[in-house]
Amino acid sequence: MSEKLQGPWLNLTERPRPTTRSFLPVTAAFVAAAFLWWSSSFPRTPAPPNAAELLSKCYATKVAAGPPLDFSSRTESDRHVAGSRATLIVGAKIWTGAEDGHDIVHGDLLLESGMIKAVGRVPESLLRGLKYDTIQAHGSWVTPGLGEHMVFARDGRLWNPDGS
Question: Residue 115: which H helix or E strand, with range?
Fold first, then answer.
């Protein structure tokens, strides 16, 4: 059965059938609504209470690499834990990194306030009155200042001065 639709802009003998294109916006809207409903069912992680403080520290990513200007005048490391004792490492094979990495010192190492105070022979004047723990190294390697870099040593990517 065919009926003729009339109108100034219309002169069709049959009604047009819906096409796939007409269902696309409806389907997209349905999928979007379903996704929003589904994603809202997950708990949201709130921002930490100190979020503003954390974001303000991001300026450090724009600071030039290297130690701070007052590095040489420090009396303790910024990582030093107050109340911790000094450490004297005795009888170590110490790789200082000097002389293009060829400098090896056989001796002792004094660490105080989180900083290296002496390498090689530690003067008695530094030890007098100081409360410290002693570690016998028995010729083991010590690499002062390279603690964080030693992660790569286990992968064999860090040069070993004596080839061992």
Answer: strand 115-120
Whole-structure pTM value? 0.51
CATH 2.30.40 domain extents, the chain? 73-155
* pLDDT for res 2: 55
Q: Greatest CA separation found in the chain? A: 114
- H/E element holding 30? helix 20-39
- Residue 162, pLDDT score: 52
Which of these, 112, 75, 110, 71, lies nearest to 94 by C-alpha position?
Answer: 110
- CATH fit for domain 73-155, picks 2.30.40, 2.60.40, 3.30.160, 3.40.1350: 2.30.40
Give the single-character DSSP code of 161.
Answer: T
Dump pLDDT digits (tens) for 40-52: 777 778 888 998 8
